[in-house]
Amino acid sequence: MKLATEWVDVLISPILIIFTAPYRRTFKLYTWEPLKRIREAENDRKVFISRVREWKEEKYKELESVQLAVRT
Question: pTM of the full predicted structure?
């Protein structure tokens, strides 16, 4: 199963880099890295739930930073 995950990373990463170029740092910080961490939780329900909650909080921070950037 790990090999399949690696191939997904190899195929999706370049596509994401192209589409997220202007937004890359924010995307990586608030979306990509947390998704990796959530995926690493595997079958541990408590860890999974806490990481999803953290991700939700971080997405709100991301929204605030994007709104601030749009206003200026």
Answer: 0.59
